Fold this protein.
Amino acid sequence: MKIIDIKDTVVPIRSDIRNAYIDFGLMTVSVVALITDVLRDGKPVVGFGFNSNGRYAQQGLLRERFIPRLKAAAPESLLNEKGGNLDPEKIWASLMKNEKPGGHGDRSVAVGVIDMAVWDAVSKIEGVPLYRYLADRYRGGKADEKVSIYAAGGYYYPGKGLEALKQEMQSYLDRGYTTVKMKIGGASLDEDLRRIEAVLAVVGDGGNLAVDANGKFCIEEAITYAEALKPYGLRWYEEAGDPLDYALQAELAGHYEGPMATGENLFSMQDARNLIRHGGMRPNRDILQFDCALSYGLVEYMRTLEMLEESGWSRRSCIPHGGHQMCLNVAAGLGLGGNESYPDVFKPFNGFADRVPVEDGYVGFPDLPGIGLEAKNEPYKIMKELVDS
Amino acid sequence: MKIIDIKDTVVPIRSDIRNAYIDFGLMTVSVVALITDVLRDGKPVVGFGFNSNGRYAQQGLLRERFIPRLKAAAPESLLNEKGGNLDPEKIWASLMKNEKPGGHGDRSVAVGVIDMAVWDAVSKIEGVPLYRYLADRYRGGKADEKVSIYAAGGYYYPGKGLEALKQEMQSYLDRGYTTVKMKIGGASLDEDLRRIEAVLAVVGDGGNLAVDANGKFCIEEAITYAEALKPYGLRWYEEAGDPLDYALQAELAGHYEGPMATGENLFSMQDARNLIRHGGMRPNRDILQFDCALSYGLVEYMRTLEMLEESGWSRRSCIPHGGHQMCLNVAAGLGLGGNESYPDVFKPFNGFADRVPVEDGYVGFPDLPGIGLEAKNEPYKIMKELVDS
């Protein structure tokens, strides 16, 4: 077998939302189709990948470095031992040939997009859903049939008042979610507290609400917010300071006993390891949000999981960023703690399979080989067009 | 005044050399020309920038995100208070609009290339060499008229034996260098020690030789090499382990009393700060090699210098990677400890002004406004063609 072609395109996921750090008005996503010569039901198996929000499409890097390297590799060098399927680790090594260590940004997204397409193809060739494939290969067959998810929203946008915020959160509960997340740090502390109280009036217990500062705060602001947030007993307090300011995170832990979360802006095992070593994160309560679609894919994410276990962390502490079906499969197949979901933003790449409902804060999988992207009509149209282009 | 156009191109700097980590067979560099409407000697002032080796050209990111953002910015928003020149900080902020924190790789190169062109233009508009401009603006006029440099070479390449290595090093001495650097970690320890002894036979004192492992070693290998290197009293032992493995660096400091060096693969103030906080580096002997051309440019590098001074480090501990005239100007203008030089590799972007000789391990500047790129014929031909294209 071999890879016949690799195609890519760029799709806007523009939204009028903003977090404390950026506007999403020009956000884009790369979509990749990895076309193989393996036939299933008479058609070539195609793996699809895309990056999650926050880091832009990577057409330049894909076309300058990563797709040419993969196309230049000897086909047999990319196969598993039996030769019947692709080998994600070998493909990863081929992609990263002649890349120096360090500097994990942007290229980590380009590689993540291709890696997703590889795993989609691998599990389609095996004829099983990806989560099932991962459970069989790495976890003795033990898969979670559904995954705990939370509704990430509560963004700032022009003219959005407390009533609109409450309606948004109510609509998540109406759609089967029990836990929600909202942005903080893009307004004054007073206004953010009013926003938090408005949301709590909808979702009830503080344990149903996480808040996310998107790395905006200096240590003083982070502590000020920590003191103010304490009484609410929130689900977690996310990314208070710069994602690389491990000392800030460690100091903040001395001021906030509740769960804290971070990691969506750390894009390699090495960066994740530094958070674990130097960030004062607490294995008995804190949450790690590394997102394989932005971080060199699942091959690298498995290195991160190994590092975490060596450091005394449970995989259940991992609730990835990104709200996509790839991380959902990883969560179910490798036993993570849950997954993010964007019920309303980053269309059309938000959410999971169209006909699989969210119930009591959990979601399951369509009965399809691969990641299950074919079960989501709107983005699949784009992927189908890419293959036929 | 305003920026009229920004052009970019990609140039190969392929070499048959390798270090312990990568081959340089397909290495490329981005070149940018920033064309202004300011006239000097009857011609528009053009600022030039390029990235240094090791991290590839960035045409994709430049064209997808950074050049469009700069072109879209209101021209007056990019000027200094008096309106007569560009403001590098304001341009930097405009480039980084809607970029999330963390993930410092690739985009740090794209921004570094533009930032270099901005400083070149700014000092050309002022009619002074960049190092003089920097000294006047940031250091009360105190500039170093020449900079200590060392010859970086000693790469592995097919068929290169000890005699060829010695000839290479002798040729550096013949060209005015006193200190040289060679690669280690791409061969066995025994072979590397033979290579080191061969080079010492040429350069004499161990203080004239630095060695560079390019991040190849795990902690055990790093310590094994440390023990073996000790007796030679080398100038420094560079990048033993992964550039983000601060714990390895800190542990290694307990096994090697001589100077160590690292930093060329840390691309932001935040990453540099983590090295200082967690890497066990010793301000009284170790060397910091952050390269602004790969790391969001001089605007970000000045944040790094500020962080270093707040942490008790002298600027003289900084000897940047990259071997280009930008860092040479920064070294002279802001009082760093020296600069790298590649006498023979990464052509045509290696080395400094054609007619300014290296003497006793120091090099000076041509009497030209800006970075001085016009005094280096081969790369300047490429830049000139880019402007006229």
Remarks:
- Chain B has a mean pLDDT of 96.
- The first strand of chain B starts at residue 3 and ends at 12.
- The radius of gyration of chain B is 20 Å.
